[in-house]
Structure formats: C-alpha cells, structure tokens
Amino acid sequence: MDTTLSTTLSGMLTTYQELRDRIYTMARQHGFRPDWVESTRSVRLLLLYDSNHVVVARTTVPVRDITMAKLDRLREDLAPVFGKEWME
Amino acid sequence: MSEPAISLVVHVKREQVLDTGAWVWTALPQRYPGSAGGRSIAELHEEVEALKHFITGADPATRINVDYIYEVPGLSGEVLIDYRHERSRRDDAAAELRRANDELGTKARTMASALRAAGLSIRDSAAVMELSKSRFEQLCQG
User: Fold this and answer.
1) Of B25, B26, B41, which to mutate for an interface test with A (greatest number of A Cβ within 10 Å)?
2) Average pLDDT, whole number, for chain A?
3) Is ipTM over 0.95?
4) Which entry of B10, B41, B78, B102 is 20 to 30 Å from A54 by CA?
C-alpha cells in the first residue's frame, strides 16, 4: 500500500494489515476476543466474542482489492461494538 | 426435516481498488453483514457461494437462494428484470412440459396395455392411439 494514498484518504485505514491491527486494538479495549474463522480469496471471516463466549459481531475483512464500499460495510458491521468512529 | 430456505439479496457494483485503481466487483449482502469481491463476476459468485452461510449465520445444511442485483452504470435495471422474468417463464414452461410428458407416458402405457388386452393387433392399437407401429411397440416394451 502506498503510504501517500493512506494520507490522502484522511488517515483512514486502507490495508488489510491496518484493519487487522485496529480490530485487535479495539477488541482488546472493549474486552472482546477476535476469532478468524477462515479465509477466502478476497476476505477473512471474523467473529467477535464477549467474555461470556457469545458472538457479538460477525463480518468479513477484505484482504485484497480493498474498495470504499467494502470499508464502509466493515465500518458499519463493527460500529455497534466498537463505536461509529472505530476506523478513524 | 430440512431447514427452510433463506433468501439472500446481494447488491453487486463495480468499484476501483483504493491502491491500484483497478476495477473490481464488490458484493454487498443486504440485511446481513460482510462483503465479498471478485475480479470477475464469476469469481464474485464463487466468493459469495463460499461465504453465504457465514454471512447469514445459517447452519451449513440450510439452503440459501442468492439473488444478485447488479448496479451497472448505463444498464437499466429493467433490462435485467425483464430478462430474468422471461427466463423464469421459460423454465416454468419447461418444467410443466416435463410433468405433462411424464403423465402422458404413464397413461399411454396403460392405454396400450388395455388395447392389447382387448385383443387389438399392434397395428390397430397404434392406429387408435395415433402412433406409428414402431412407437407403439416401443411403448409396450417400456
């Protein structure tokens, strides 16, 4: 990922590595456990568990060909547990 | 007993990848989380097939019918809807024809047996049923 592009997207996360690291950070902050279920060619499947081992969120994290719509969807999927601005 | 089918509506749009600018296809399930992508429509379909049980949270045994809605600039949605409608009509008609053929086959065999049992020759039986002699013989053997 071109770091210049990251900057032009106003600090938004735009690579899989950035998304994964932010998810780990947010999960730790909120006391959730991330579980990567499996992978396909384009995404990794993510479940978030609370301390009672209940699934609190389910989503896919893009690993390649990342687009705005995919980022928007990921942001929406995890907003209920991480807060609206978790990706900022 | 099998689980009832789930209907999954997926919006498909063309988008540019943020880093390379390449055009790809993005799949966005409606009313369910997640997304998928493909560099071709066929690849996107494969991805959605692989993900659909996870996306819906359904048991792997559950049947999931995926309905793709394509957002292609310059292509009216009605064109695709019309095409799907006509294809569906054609499929229904083909299924009805298969059913009618099956029923006709059963009745024709019953009729052929009844004619032979009544003492009619193969030639006369075929004539009564408006079939060729060879077709009638085929029917009796089947």
Assistant:
1) B26
2) 89
3) no
4) B10
